[in-house]
Design brief:
This protein has one domain. Helix content is 43%, strand content 14%. It contains 5 helices and 5 strands. A 5-stranded antiparallel β-sheet has the order 1-2-3-5-4. The protein is elongated and about 90 Å long.
């Protein structure tokens, strides 16, 4: 019988302190992973906000330099000839209906980075869908206030992301202000988010 008692004394298990330490470590690791994911998402939100701001600035800078809107510029071949790009002229009606050409004119003018063909290439946002700079028209699924003749349209943003972008640029309400969503931000995906220019 003494041998059985000795075996039990020699057998070791985890103490409560050791289990507590392991649980604390697991909790810290889970917390770090979740915090890391939140930091990545926040960085993507900031990238969308920065993209909106830079496209607004680029559109105004193009207009200031050439006196016409990108895409709509009927002298783009002359204005952008030294860039080495072959571009098409717009119709100079005061509206950026030519949204593929907008990208090309902005890139060839050095206002944004990238290479666009003017007929089908689109910009992308950090959530892997399209971004357009275009005329403010309800036919595109969203209308921002009439004072904004043009807008930047972000396609297919997660609802929580669209709300965060709206909050950072405007009022956080999808039906008011200069930033509008095509649906409530409680939806899984907001098909369009329009930012007035």
């Amino acid at each position: 019988m003494k041998t059985k008692t000795k075996k039990r004394k020699n057998e070791k298990g985890f103490t409560l302190v050791e289990l507590a330490i392991v649980l604390v470590i697991v909790g810290l690791l889970l917390g770090a992973v979740l915090k890391g994911q939140q930091m990545i998402e926040n960085a993507k939100i900031k990238a969308v906000v920065d993209q909106a701001k830079s496209l607004i600035a680029a559109t105004h800078a193009y207009n200031d330099r050439y006196g016409q809107l990108p895409g709509d510029d009927n002298q783009a071949t002359t204005h952008l000839s030294q860039s080495g790009c072959t571009v098409a002229n717009g119709n100079n009606d005061g509206y950026m209906w030519e949204y593929f050409a907008v990208n090309e004119h902005l890139a060839c003018g050095g206002f944004i980075t990238g290479s666009y063909n003017g007929t089908s290439d689109t910009m992308k946002h950090k959530f892997d869908s399209n971004v357009y700079v275009l005329v403010n028209n309800s036919g595109y699924g969203i209308t921002v206030p009439a004072i904004y003749r043009h807008m930047i349209r972000f396609d297919n943003l997660p609802g929580t992301i669209a709300e965060a972008v709206d909050r950072l640029l405007d009022d956080g309400i999808y039906t008011t202000g200069s930033v509008r969503g095509s649906a409530a931000y409680t939806n899984t995906t907001v098909q369009y988010l329009g930012v007035g220019i």
